[in-house]
Each structure stands twice: as structure tokens, then as C-alpha cells.
Amino acid sequence: MLTIDEQQEIEAQYPRYATKQGASVEALKIVQRRCGWVSDEDVKEVAAFLDMPYEELEGVATFYNLVFRRPVGRHTILICDNVSCWITGYRAIRDALITRLGAELGETTADKRFTLLPIPCLGACDHAPAMMVGLDLHGDLQVDQIDVILQKYE
């Protein structure tokens, strides 16, 4: 159920858009902050709150890759797989993360600490290869940095 604070935060987004339905991505992100992901029930509640069909909001939620539609770990690792990262060491970084975490792309570690997800671009091509852990951007990655970076996140 949407909290009063979430409803007010969503309503505060309305002036930024021509219609309140235009705030759908922001509304989903607001709800996601509560649990780390957006359930089907959350999508139904947000759709009703925005006066839009569930199916339409579900389309938004599944299109936007930063809206997580299933539970994720305490920390989400987004590893950039754009061409800049590919040519500067993506594969080695990806393989190191998979080995260290014991989780493949799209999976969550057994202790629910990390979820490893690919992302088409982080907008950090000048610091490729790059990844984000939560809201922290890590660029110019080298395999020997991975353990130090992961240790920062409990």
C-alpha cells in the first residue's frame, strides 16, 4: 500500500509533466526505494493512484531497466556492457565479478548482499570499463580493484 509520504512525493512530481501519468517512472522509483524492487501489487496501486491502466504502467515498469521487478540484493551492481567497456576490459571485469560473487548476470548472491545486472550504458565511456554499486560509479576498473570495491558494501 502506498504510504502517505509516497503519495505526497509522487504528487510533488506532477508539475514536471503535462499529465500525472507522465510521472509514472518517478512514481515507480519512489516506491522502489521502500523495498528495493516493485511488486505486481505495487504496480497496481501506483497505476490506480495515477489513474492509468495497470497494463500501461506494467509496460513502463518492464521497459525501464532501473525499475527492478523482482527482489534484489542489498546492493545492486550494474556493469556496463556498452562498446566502450567491451573494448577496455568488460569481459575480465564481468568474469571477476561472477567469480567473486558466485552469481551470474541477473542473479543475486546467496547471502542477498549483491545482485549483478548488465546495463547498456552508464554514460561513463571516458572511464570505461565502469560499473555502479548502488549510486556509486566506479570507472577505469581493473580486475585487482574488484575485491576492494566489494568490501565497501556490507
UniProtKB/TrEMBL annotation:
[2Fe-2S] cluster binds at residues 80, 85, 121, 125. GO terms for molecular function: 2 iron, 2 sulfur cluster binding; metal ion binding; NADH dehydrogenase activity. The gene is nuoE. Binds 1 [2Fe-2S] cluster. PROSITE patterns: COMPLEX1_24K. Belongs to the complex I 24 kDa subunit family. This is NADH-quinone oxidoreductase subunit E. Its cofactor is [2Fe-2S] cluster. Keywords: 2Fe-2S, Iron, Iron-sulfur, Metal-binding, Oxidoreductase.
